Amino acid sequence: MTVAKVLVIEDDVALAKMVSDWLSLEHHNTELVHDGADAAARLRVYDYDLIVLDWELPGVMGVDILKEFRSRGGLTPVLMLTGRGTIDDKEKGFDCGADDYLTKPFHAKELTARLRALLRRPEAYLGETLKVGDISLDRANFRVLRGDEEIRLLPKEFALLEFLMRNQNRVFAPEALLNRVWVTESEATVDALTTCIKRLRKKIDVEGKPSVIRTVHGVGYKLEA
Question: Residues 77, 122: contact at Cβ < 8 Å?
Fold first, then answer.
């Protein structure tokens, strides 16, 4: 499963933290929001790979947030969490645009299994092992190899390399990379990205050969196959 940027929208602070902790064990970047208005505002500005959305929220109901998000063309997979377990409630959630539905209380293993399924939908899933040239990235075991030599990467370096490998030959502006790889409103600065790319190049590049991470001046960065 790819490193994902996940927005968890849940007003139960303890439950939201538990969900975040479970996602962190899967090495995902997680943001927590506890009210509907804040959630709706974030979804108008930022991109996410997955949304975990509670039905009952203060301010704006989860189903209303979902309807607005889908009406604006939002395609991000959404897993709804709710204490409502009737068929009519589930039907309403799916009709509003939910991709999956989990009734409280639930087990962590069921949550992560459902998230895995959503993150590997056929149009987005490219497998656990990626390869570009002689560099291979093993998502399942969090290993990067050049040939038979293992390259030790920090978590953010690994996440950035994985994102670029999954989107090879596509150019991304610095702001787009920050939006997809870093947690929103954290250490996400252009300087942080530049530093991370420098470290990554130093570890994965071969001396005397062009970097596989190419700088497209005035535009951004891309990983060349």
Answer: no
d(CA 92, CA 41): 23
What distances in angstroms separate CA 74 from CA 25, 46, 97, 169, one per listed residue? Answer: 27, 11, 10, 25
Q: Are 61 and 55 in contact (CB under 8 A)?
A: yes
**Residue 225 vs residue 210, higher pLDDT:** 210
CB-side exposure of 23: number of CA atoms within 13 Å?
Answer: 25
CB 56 within 8 Å of CB 83: yes
Q: Please provide the CATH number assigned to the domain covering 129-223.
A: 1.10.10.10
Tell me the two tokens of residue 76. 């991000």
CATH topology of domain 5-119: Rossmann fold (3.40.50)
pTM across the whole model? 0.60
**CA dist., res. 69 & res. 45, Å (int):** 11
Q: Any idea where the domains of the chain sit in the sequence?
A: 5-119, 129-223
Q: Could you report the per-residue pLDDT of 91-133, keeping only the tens digit for each?
A: 776 777 888 888 888 888 888 888 888 877 644 444 567 888 8
Pair 221, 181: CB distance under 8 Å: no
Q: Helices 13-25 and 108-119 sit at what angle, rounded to 10 degrees?
A: 60
**Tell me, what DSSP letter sits at residue 87?**
H
3-state helix, strand, coil in the chain (%, to 5): 40, 20, 40
